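Thread: quick sanity check before group meeting

JM: Hey all, I'm pulling together slides for Thursday and realized we never actually wrote out the predicted structure for the chain we discussed last week. Dropping the sequence here so it's in one place. If anyone has concerns about the input, flag it before I start.
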Amino acid sequence: MNGKRRILILGAVAGIAIALACGQAAMNDGAAASTGQGVEAPMFEVDPFWPKPLPDHWLLGSTIGVAVDSRDHVFIIHRRASIDERTELGADVDPPTGDCCSAAPEVLEFDPEGNLVNSWGGPSDGYVWPGSNHGITADHMDNLWIGGNGPNDTHILKFSRDGEFLASYGEPEAGREPDSHSQTRFNRVAKLAFDAEANEAYLADGYGGRRVAVLDASTGAFKRYWGAYGNAPDDTPTPPYDPDAPLIQQFRTPVHCAEPTLDGLVYVCDRANDRIQVFQADGTYVNEVQIAPRTRGDGSVWDIAFSRDPEQTWMYVADGKNMKVYVVHRASLEVVTSFGDGGRQPGQFIGVHSIATDSRGNIYTTETYAGKRVQKFVYMGMGPVPAEHQGPPWPRGDQ
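JM (edit): ok, ran it. Output follows.
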């Protein structure tokens, strides 16, 4: 980034931060909802009819990743082993105990209307399928990349969008001890993301390691890595998160996402520290923000997706512990509003885990643990923020 561009961006960020601070103050006073003069943000409504019912009595297990390709086709990945055989898979046992149900293949592809158009995945003689698949991402050539967070998952897989195996990078089953300095193995990768212009893959590495790793997206060649604040990563175990203690200088596990932007920044989910750290593409530390910093255990920052305008103005943050999605102004790192709630009805969540956007601005989420589903939230345009937390964004009857 040249000096002139950096100055322009910093000036814009400062102006936006001031404007948002004023808007947030109005919200806190109750003025935003009552007067309509507060900040505006993207508005969403859940589509309770998306996707359409699956064929052949198929069921999803813990749904651990979502991706959108250049055609706005939506891919999800789930864990078949998380489906209860006794109570849910009567058609899969031998002998069958009932007509319903069967575990769906690991990867499902939907068109924009929610029709299932393809399915694939799972173990094969041609590659080592992860012991616990985790995350699926479409790159800029519409290839699909899959990580794994099982105890022995030290590699990643690359497929065509039709499920043809293309490559495996890293040493499969290289051992359970993490090595956040290795250039030949990974550490239970949570998710991948891509910088199309640089043709690079960013790995959130991961459930064992404490780093961001960057590969050549065509060859898998290892290029660079870094830890929190740009430090060298340290795999020494850390004490449990204490919201009243100073933030530690290392990522906690899991490092759950590492998302590059069009303006040369990288946003990293340091999940159990309840924080997002921002870097330049070379690992230089820029900024950080904590979200719901009193959250313990699983943490609050699970995944990130960006709005599709050229500036990527908005950042959507999935919080599987508090069962909501935050709408964050990316430049200022201000949480403007949030939606969702705990529950199983449309617009609610159980362990909202992964998040992605399509070219029309719609949001897709998946739910792990007992959530076991994908949901679509339709972009309704910009509007005044109605509340700090909106609850489930049900369709409005007047639209």
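AS: nice. The chain has three helices and 26 strands. The mean pLDDT is 92.
JM: adding both to the slides.
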